[in-house]
Recover the amino acids of this structure.
């Protein structure tokens, strides 16, 4: 009788804990959450859309600002959802590791119980020195059973949480689909507008710079060289009533003023994380006084905003404007890289060539 109860207890322990482990075994393997990227900017059929060649330059710029604002709206929504997906991916991986750890903890115990439950009563008696020893083993096993039951309950709860996480991830992915579709449509329109603008500006003369300054000078020396350029003299006479800065792209500010040394040991601006291929727009009204590669900065863009203020942007892959062109706040000026890892945009504000803390303006972006 004691031996039979002992075997039944073994079977109960196995059933209780194994139910939780079954959920782990049936769970789908966790891989990196893949976020579908937008399709190419210009899709088949876009070539048959309007060319905008009949619009004036002012009309083109106004339309570009409008379309760029819509692109930023969709990119901001995509940025938030993609960030949430990355966080869910981390949670999913952590919970999977926790499940595997719990499974490992009780696997050896279950193997022993399975062996005992399948052993005949006579064999059990032969394994034990006497009936009292068998009884003590049964009592010990009885004390283990609540712990195994608790672990089985925990495993079942964790499997449920994993399932809910996967469902949440799937909902987030489905929400991205329509956003990507709208984003691609607006990008196609912007591409045609930019093509029309390029044709309208094709006759504008190019501003030339000293290559020695571009290859070995500092940003301060570059600004001095730019100010001395006769082709840009009129641009520096422009003034604004009050400097206003808007975000050049949706994203997240990663480093504060004077805390970043990634772009240069002397850099003191702020760094902003954006989406891959994010559309960049002018953060202020002004005149482009430099656009091109510069030393270790890569491609940089400098906008003279009046009152001796200059806004420097670095880290973009493409630039749509050239030195000598005027830009309006919100007008497309470039594009970030299309690499899978989120690219970083460096933003620097200077007054009279001296670096200024842009934090008061950046704080307004969060409101």
């Amino acid at each position: 009788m004691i031996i039979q109860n002992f075997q039944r207890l073994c079977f109960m322990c196995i059933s209780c804990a194994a139910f939780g482990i079954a959920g782990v075994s049936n769970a789908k393997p966790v891989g990196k959450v893949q976020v579908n990227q937008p399709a190419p900017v210009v899709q088949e059929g876009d070539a048959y859309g309007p060319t905008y060649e009949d619009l004036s330059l002012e009309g083109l710029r106004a339309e570009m600002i409008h379309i760029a604002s819509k692109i930023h709206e969709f990119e901001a929504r995509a940025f938030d959802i993609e960030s949430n997906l990355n966080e869910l991916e981390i949670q999913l991986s952590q919970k999977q590791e926790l499940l595997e750890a719990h499974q490992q903890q009780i696997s050896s115990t279950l193997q022993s119980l399975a062996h005992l439950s399948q052993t005949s009563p006579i064999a059990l008696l032969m394994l034990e020195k006497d009936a009292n020893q068998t009884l003590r083993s049964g009592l010990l096993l009885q004390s283990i059973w609540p712990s195994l039951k608790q672990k089985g309950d925990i495993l079942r709860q964790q499997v449920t949480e994993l399932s809910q996480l996967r469902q949440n991830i799937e909902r987030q992915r489905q929400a991205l689909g329509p956003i990507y579709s709208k984003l691609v449509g607006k990008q196609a329109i912007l591409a045609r507008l930019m093509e029309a603008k390029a044709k309208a500006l094709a006759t504008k003369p190019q501003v030339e710079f000293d290559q020695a300054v571009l290859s070995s000078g500092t940003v301060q020396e570059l600004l001095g060289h730019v100010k001395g350029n006769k082709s840009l003299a009129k641009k520096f006479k422009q003034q604004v009533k009050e400097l206003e800065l808007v975000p050049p792209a949706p994203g997240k500010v990663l480093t504060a003023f004077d805390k970043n040394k990634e772009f240069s040991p002397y850099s003191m601006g702020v760094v902003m994380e954006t989406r891959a291929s994010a559309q960049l727009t002018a953060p202020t009204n002004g005149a482009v006084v430099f656009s091109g590669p510069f030393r270790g900065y890569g491609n940089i863009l400098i906008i003279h905003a009046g009152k001796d203020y200059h806004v420097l942007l670095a880290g973009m892959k493409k630039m749509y404007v050239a030195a000598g062109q005027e830009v309006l706040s919100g007008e497309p000026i470039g594009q970030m890289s299309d690499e899978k890892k989120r690219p970083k945009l460096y933003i620097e504000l200077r007054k009279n060539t001296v670096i200024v803390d842009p934090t008061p303006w950046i704080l307004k972006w969060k409101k």
